[in-house]
Amino acid sequence: MSDELQRIMAIDDPYLLLREVTTRLADAQQEVTELARLRRRVVQDLHAQGLSYAQIAEKAGLSRGRIHQIRHTGPAPEGVFLGAGAVTIVTPLRWDGEKKRPVVAMADVNSGKRLEELAKSYGLDVSSGHVLVSGEVDLNRDGLVVVCGPGMSETMSDLYAQDPVLSWEHPEGEPWALVDRRTGNSYRAGRDTDPSRWYDVGYLGRLPRPDGNGSVLAIAGIHTEGSLGVVHMLTSDLNTIWGQVGERRFSTLVGVEYDPETDEPQSVELLTPLYLHDEETEA
User: Fold this and answer.
1) Quick one: which of 162, 195, 178 has its CA closest to 254?
2) Contact call for residues 128 and 91 (beta carbons, < 8 A)
3) Average pLDDT for 214-239
């Protein structure tokens, strides 16, 4: 019996006991989920290195059937791309002059819901939050996924400035652009070009928290259609992206063709490599 369990069992106040047991159960379930994810990841990695299930089983002291079961059941390893145990999905509030209150753009609502569904499909607990109309948001939290561009938040602008390869640029009197500093290529939304077209550019990156104690997964489009396109790519091909970047800091740009009636992505493609930031720093 662990010391923590003994401490809880010794509580006399029934209401405090109920609260402590409920909290501990939630924490324990998250821990079990992440241990199962890690176990499956280890088996998957060993198998990818060329070891058979029988060889893995022999070295681990488990049965071949158990190893095979671990490989194909439980939470998928790529879920850790979003966070461990629990994630918080944050979308921006915008001021509606007609309604005289903060609202969330429909595209951002859809992005948030789809990210929530994706996280839950990997066994993660999900909560939500907002970037305030003022642009304020606390980035020093674990498991944070933020859908917000630099134009709506100085805090997010400072976060994006940590990217060593890709940058947001907004010259006076000009529309926003995303720039690949390695190649010199500049990318703009289709509505900001002549002739215009139903096309947007999205950003996806894992960037350092202001307090230095972790990272934030940041998603943004030049317009909201770009964010939706990034989310579409994550929901359809997360395993491939995770396989290339793992839990390391990185960034990339996504081109999005969308339906002008619904804003829904019709096709998405990577415009840049998945840049690993530690490699950029070494270079």
Assistant:
1) 178
2) yes
3) 95
Average pLDDT, the chain: 90
Instruction: Examine residue 195 and say whether the peptide bond preceding it is cis (omega within 30 degrees of 0).
Output: yes
Amino acid at 145: V
The pLDDT tens digits of the residues spanning 56-67 come to 888 888 888 887
Greatest mean pLDDT among 54-58, 60-64, 126-130, 191-195 lies in: 126-130
Cα maximum dimension of the chain: 73
Asked if 114 and 235 count as a contact pair (C-beta separation under 8 A), the reply is yes
Are residues 115 and 58 in contact, defined by beta-carbon separation less than 8 angstroms? no
**Separation CA 133–CA 129 (nearest Å):** 12
Run of H or E residues at 243: helix 224-245
CA distance 105 to 59: 53
Distances (CA, A) of 48 to 39, 53, 57, 72, 122: 14, 11, 15, 14, 21
Q: What is the CA radius of gyration of the chain?
A: 22
In sequence order, what DSSP letters do the residues of 127-189 get, joined into one string?
A: EEEEE-TT------STTEEEE--GGG-HHHHHHHTT-SSEEEE--TTS--EEEETTT--EE--
Instruction: Specify whether the backbone of 229 is left (phi greater than 0), alpha (psi in -120 to 50) or beta.
Output: alpha
Residue 155: what residue type?
T
CA distance 145 to 1: 36
CA-based angle 252:77:121, to the nearest 5? 90
Q: What is the DSSP letter of 68?
A: H
Residue whose entry in the numeric block shows the structure tokens 């066994």? 123
Q: Which residues pair with 168 in a beta bridge?
A: 178
